[in-house]
Inverse folding.
């Protein structure tokens, strides 16, 4: 089992969006028994809350299910439990690196990569903006999650001989 944790500051916008998109990809490709995804925040501002209503609205419109996602703060055990811990921006990346034990630093990275086609490596925080910012976050999550899940499928020993049952597409359903 490979485990991926998506992390933003409050765990109500970017990281639950990434979790929802990645979960749909994992389910659609038939790797739900091999890949687990989750999300957390670096701060406990919204602990126990559901994702922001704008995130839930866009997720629903795009066919993603965010039911069961509740904001939580990253814990020390997350650094041991998860194989990859992906921050949405540099500020949260630095927080994660300072908080974990040295042996887990290699698990931490940015969710968005240079080659994802957006010209940036940070997913912007849409919290204080309008719906366009939230739509852009989902656009970024859809592209980056495809790459992350594809890399994870390729790196899973249990998946080496089992190709994905469905190819990635733009339609989450």
């Amino acid at each position: 089992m490979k485990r991926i944790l998506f992390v933003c500051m409050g765990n109500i916008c970017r990281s639950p969006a990434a979790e929802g998109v990645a979960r749909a990809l994992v389910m659609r490709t038939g790797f739900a028994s091999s890949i687990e995804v989750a999300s957390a925040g670096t701060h406990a501002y919204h602990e126990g809350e559901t994702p922001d209503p704008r995130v839930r609205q866009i997720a629903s419109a795009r066919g993603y299910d965010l039911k069961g996602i509740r904001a939580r703060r990253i814990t020390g055990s997350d650094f041991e439990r998860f194989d990859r811990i992906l921050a949405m921006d540099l500020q949260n990346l630095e927080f994660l690196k300072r908080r974990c034990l040295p042996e887990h630093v290699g698990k931490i990275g940015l969710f968005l990569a240079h080659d994802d086609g957006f010209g940036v490596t940070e997913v912007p925080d849409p919290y204080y903006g309008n719906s366009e910012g939230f739509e852009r976050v989902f656009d970024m999550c859809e592209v980056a999650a495809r790459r992350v899940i594809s890399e994870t499928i390729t790196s899973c020993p249990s998946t080496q001989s089992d190709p994905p049952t469905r190819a990635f597409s733009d339609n989450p359903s």
